[in-house]
Write a structure and sequence with these properties.
Layout lengths: L17 H10 L5 E3 L7 E2 L4 H14 L19 E2 H14 L2 E2 L5 E2 L5 E3 L2 H25 L5 H25 L8 H8 L4 H6 L9 H18 L1
């Protein structure tokens, strides 16, 4: 059976990371806060795409002549935890190093993200800092016969977009579970020799998280999702 391998590091699943970059690169727009607890128990499931591909190749090869069904969870959640604090640090470092600009060419100042531990605190923050000022703008617009209608509508749409994103991703932002990867570990240990293990590496322990996030994953999110 001819097989190939994926040797170059590739971004992992991008869509679960998009809200982080949407918020942070929009302070790069307007918002510098994120939902999610910034403590050690808040985890993110993240593994390079090349490791997923290598695990798939080995699983197909191992079970090519078998009829049993085995579930492999390819994740970093047990063996190499990715904490929200790590993502916060890496996103900030990336934005500082790779200056972002607005559509008019002006450079956007990078600001550190602030995590809210509960949805209640997030809603209170948004109410005080954005919803109430928007209500003031709405009343002023009514008093001035629609002078600020365009500005109000733009800000209101952006506010609703952020609140919708927060509500959609809240269950995942506060998720603290880990997934059992014992089947994957058995598959890794079943490899014949060290050469094979090196060729088809999918051990999460070997991931250098800071380097991977800053140089591979975050650029991938910006290139494929935010452009």
């Amino acid at each position: 059976m001819p097989i190939a391998r994926v040797a170059s590091a590739a971004p992992s699943w991008l869509f679960d990371f998009a809200p982080v970059m949407t918020f942070s690169s929009t302070r790069i727009g307007s918002y510098d806060i994120l939902i999610g607890s910034k403590n050690e128990s808040s985890l993110v499931l993240k593994i390079p795409g090349d490791m997923v591909a290598n695990a798939m190749i080995l699983a197909i090869t191992t079970h090519s002549n078998q009829h049993s069904e085995v579930i492999y969870h390819v994740s970093s959640s047990v063996r190499n935890l990715v904490k929200t604090s790590t993502i916060e640090k890496c996103v900030y470092q990336y934005i500082v190093k790779n200056h972002q600009t607005r559509s008019d060419g002006k450079e956007i100042k990078a600001n550190k993200l602030h995590f809210k531990r509960t949805m209640t605190s997030f809603h209170i923050y948004m109410l005080l800092h954005y919803r109430l000022p928007l209500e003031g703008l709405r009343l002023m617009n009514l008093a001035l016969f629609g002078l600020f209608t365009q500005q109000y509508n733009t800000y209101w749409r952006e506010y609703k977009r952020v609140m919708l994103l927060a509500d959609i991703y809240a269950p995942y932002a506060f998720f603290k579970g880990c997934f059992d990867d014992s089947n994957l570990e058995c598959l890794r240990k079943a490899m014949v020799n060290n050469v094979e293990m090196k060729l088809f590496d999918f051990d999460p322990v070997n991931i250098e998280l800071d380097d991977y996030l800053i140089n591979i994953h975050i650029p991938g999110v910006i290139k494929y999702l935010l452009k």
